[in-house]
Amino acid sequence: MLEKEIYANGQKVYDLKDDYLTYYFKNGALKAEGHFIKNKKEAEWVFYRKTGYMWKKGTYIKGKRDGQWQRFSADGQVESDCIYRDGELSKA
């Protein structure tokens, strides 16, 4: 997951401090952030558009989506709201 460290333009792809991982777009804008424990996404993660607006957010448990996930439109409105269990979309 953390194979590529630097984009061709010299921008860092990610920054890992303690157990907190931050991903960046090629232009240096924030791409995603959250806890990264034992090489897996953990707890709440937030993903952003290149414009800086939030795109989606949700929770991971041992690298799998688990719990509520929301996706947002470019103007910040909730586009979808769903529940995952152990990495699978819950039908209930």
Could you write a compact summary of the structure shown?
With 92 residues, the protein is mostly beta strands. The protein has strands at residues 14-17, 20-24, 30-37, 40-48, 54-61, 64-72, 78-85, 88-89.
What keyword list fits this structure?
92 residues; 0% helix; eight-stranded antiparallel beta sheet; flat; single chain; mainly beta; 58% strand
Which value, in Å, is the CA radius of gyration?
A: 14 Å
Amino- and carboxy-terminal Cα gap: 31 Å
How confident is the prediction overall: mean pLDDT?
94
SS elements, strand count: 8
Helix content: under 10%
Q: Based on the structure, what is the oligomeric state of the protein chains?
A: single chain
* Class derived from helix and strand content: mainly beta
Counted by DSSP, the helix tally is: 0
Low-confidence parts, pLDDT < 50 over ≥5 residues?
Answer: none
Can you walk me through this structure?
By secondary structure, the protein is an all-beta fold. It has one domain (about 15-90). It is about 0% helix and about 60% strand. It has no helices and eight strands. Strands 1-2-3-4-5-6-7-8 form an eight-stranded antiparallel β-sheet, with no helix packed on it. Strand 7 and strand 8 (about 90) form a beta hairpin. The radius of gyration is 14 Å and the shape is flat. The relative contact order is 0.13. The model has no long low-confidence stretch (mean pLDDT about 95).
